[in-house]
Amino acid sequence: MSDENLVNNYGWSSSTQPNSCNYITPEIQRILARLQPGRVLDIGCGNGSLCSEIKAKLGVSVVGMEYDQEGVDIAKASYPEIKFYRFGVQDDPRHLLEMERNQFDVVISTEVIEHLFSPQLLPRYAHGVLKAGGRLILTTPYHGYIKNLILSLANKWDVHHTPLWEGGT
Fold it and tell me: Is residue 66 within 8 Å of residue 134, measured between CB atoms?
């Protein structure tokens, strides 16, 4: 993938969890509590706030991965007890595994895939770092009733949500 398709700065400026994501945290924690993983990877962890909440609430080993260097820097400074790496889904997952030495039981990625130029790379990357039988927890924003209704009436639902084209939404 060429660098022209990558965004290097997502505007992280603090360790506060963004309002666009904090409503998801309780449900992610409930799912993880049910799965009882030993190791969790957060792909697109941003400033690390979700990693911190998962570690504090569930006490599991959690690792964050973020392509934006500012996000990684904020995460490392705010949550030094958690490991954060600057990788993107376009990178080879073996590089992360070389540093971590072990695969993950669960990979989470909240509100990330819709921002990717090549969204199909995210599940591919997750597969590369998950243990056999591991789980991927993926969230994306809800468009709202009106947009969903229009997509359905225009018979464009499948075209709109396909991950098999370059450029994202």
Answer: no
